[in-house]
Please model this.
Amino acid sequence: MSNSSTDLLVRCDRVARTYGSGPSAVVAVHDATCQVHPGDRIALMGPSGSGKTTLLHLIAGLDDPTVGSISWPALGDRHSLRPGPLAIVFQSPSLLPPLDVVENVALPMLLLGTDRKTATNAAHEALARLDLDDLSSKLPEELSGGQAQRVAIARVLAGRPRLILADEPTGQLDHATGIRVIDVLIEAADELGAALIINTHDPLVANRLPQRWDMANGRLTILGGAKIC
Model:
């Protein structure tokens, strides 16, 4: 796998994020430098409050660094990341209540300008891959937690992103359902050839991925399997 700069999906250079100012300021991320390459499988580990979610939001372009810089060399500029080459699976499935399952899965493609028939067909295909097509006409309120999270992953799969970020995707699920969700995420990333970062405090989840980043008190440590140019 090439590590040339043109292959880089994300580059963070000495990034920090501070909330508030003066004596009450909280530094959520300190001086973080990291890179994400195609095919990476990264577990972002750390306890609650360690800065994991803040770092993930910075990588996703959902938040701005207070200092340092973030770029997406192979993905485009920040405003073209979502929906498109970068997709996020949140702890809560974030499905829109008025839309049924297939409409929720098709929505990102419609926002990108895909015609409704093509988007709907792609949504059905993604749901079928995850054995969820029989739920197509159901509303989110009719789904179990595991089903809803797998629908959220189908939505990611349908959009064919190059980078998938998952923020504590098993945090609200029982152990068996959580393991299935992680399996589905890894399978989706493999099918798409996408990089995958899973934010978790669960070592059983982290052990499923070959690369490890650790967060503690807002400081990032790159551990095994890292590709740093």
Q: What stands out?
A: The beta strands are 10-19, 26-36, 41-45, 67-71, 86-89, 163-167, 195-200, 211-216, 219-222.
